[in-house]
Specification:
Largest sheet: 7 strands, mixed
Mean pLDDT: 88
CATH architecture of the largest domain: 3-Layer(aba) Sandwich
Low-confidence stretches: 1-27
Helix content: 10-25%
Number of domains: 2
Structural class: alpha+beta
Strand order of the largest sheet: 5-4-3-6-7-8-9
Strand content: 35-45%
CATH class of the largest domain: Alpha Beta
Shape: globular
Number of strands: 21
């Protein structure tokens, strides 16, 4: 079943004081209170509690860091395409990464992956200096122009391979990486100050986790934070990547939620909101099921997983899953977008098609559901999402399977 594109959801799936004591620049186009406060509410619900970070997000004109055609979506908590196969992260992801970084007014920060300049702009009022590197020249030049126009005077940018860091200005108190290498680049470790912190997503094309590294006595301590999904780091990081192949065939991992990490969160699934893995002997497959609970109408309880899906090779994707509901209330019309859905993206990570895989209500036992979805020819990525997407109540999933039919 095809539905009217809900771009405000599917784009999500793919995120002021210049320096201590100086006044906020008058040139910035401050966002209106309504959208700003709504975004801040969502960002805080997703775990950003540091008031300085929230203030920085609220004061940063996010709409000026995205292409003009995307500005109507800028104040939703979503990723947005910025060209050159890159995206701006959801504001909640930017906020969480910034919070993990623990920015201080005296910090010198290195950012790898300038993108549109939004993350650097959020960091600007929180730290002393920001040095940001972008490997994609058109993006780097545009970001530099935007940051200069908006008078972010403590942000320095350059075009280059972020894998190598910026040795000229090292060491750095904090390092934030907004693209995903397979392993942590050694030059970044070397350029991190003693006692410093680095936040970085590591992993393969579609399976990554966010890590916090801290440096003490010359040694690096690694802490896994949560599963995530970022664009891969290019340049030297791509040259030395061991798992390079993207077959364009969707491969769903951990569809029965038996592999658990990150405090009752399932491996392979990310941007989890209001859902946990629960052990249940009545689960259709194995011991576990993935249970979402929500008591706030309109709030999103969800989990996502991205996969390759090359529309030139694939004709159809067959999806089947088991679902159980308890007091599921769809709420006012428009609250619930779906409970299981599939979104397709092109090579530039622009959304090009969506399918509702199911909407259910009330209380019901485990039931098997199956759907067939045509793959758009322009598709290169698909993202499956499950959860109480706007509904209240409790919804459990298990034994999700994907099969493909080739062209």
């Amino acid at each position: 079943m095809h539905f009217v594109p809900n771009t405000t959801y599917w784009v999500v799936t793919l995120a002021i004081v210049i320096s201590a004591g100086s006044p906020a620049p008058a040139q910035r186009d401050r966002p209106s209170a309504g959208p700003r406060e709504t975004l801040l509410k969502v960002v805080s619900e997703h775990g950003v509690t540091n008031q300085r970070v929230l203030d920085a997000i609220g004061s940063t004109p996010r709409h000026l860091f995205v292409p003009e055609e995307q500005r109507k979506y800028a104040w939703y908590d979503m990723a947005l395409p910025i060209g050159n196969k890159q995206t701006i992260s959801p504001a909640s992801v930017v906020g969480l990464m910034t919070q993990y970084l623990d920015p201080q007014p005296t910090d010198k920060v290195l950012e790898i992956g300038t993108g549109s300049g939004y993350q650097a702009a959020v960091l600007s009022p929180l730290v002393k200096e920001v040095y940001s590197i972008e490997i994609v020249e058109p993006l780097g030049k545009t970001a530099a122009q935007t940051l200069k126009k908006l008078s972010y005077r403590n942000v320095s940018t350059k075009i280059g391979d972020g894998y190598q860091g910026w040795a000229e200005h090292a060491p750095f108190d904090k390092i934030i990486v907004t693209c995903s290498p397979e392993r942590i680049p050694q030059p970044l470790v070397d350029q991190l100050q003693e006692g410093g912190r680095m936040i970085i997503p590591l992993g393969e094309r579609f399976q990554q986790a966010l890590y916090l590294f801290t440096k003490s006595d010359g040694q690096i301590r690694k802490e896994a934070l949560e599963p995530t999904f970022f664009v891969p780091m290019t340049g030297h990081a791509e040259d030395i990547r061991e798992v390079k192949e993207d077959s364009g065939r969707p491969l769903l991992l951990n569809g029965s939620f038996e592999d658990v990490a990150f405090e009752n969160l399932p491996k392979g699934w990310y941007y989890v909101r209001h859902g946990i893995v629960q052990s249940n002997t009545a689960a259709p497959d194995g011991q576990n099921s993935f249970v979402f609970s929500n008591d706030v109408p309109g709030r999103w309880a969800q989990a996502l997983q991205a996969m390759g899906a090359d529309g030139r090779k694939l004709k159809r994707i067959d999806v089947s899953l088991s679902v159980r509901g308890k007091n599921v209330d769809l709420g006012p019309r428009g609250n619930t977008q779906f409970h299981a859905g599939l979104g397709f993206f092109d090579a530039n990570r622009t959304p090009i098609g969506e399918e509702v895989l199911g909407i259910w209500s009330g209380t019901f036992g485990w039931s098997r559901k199956s759907m067939q979805v045509d793959v758009p020819r322009r598709a290169r990525i698909c993202i499956i999402a499950v959860g109480l997407c706007g509904s209240t109540g409790e919804l459990a999933f298990d034994d999700i399977e994907i099969k493909v039919v080739e062209q």
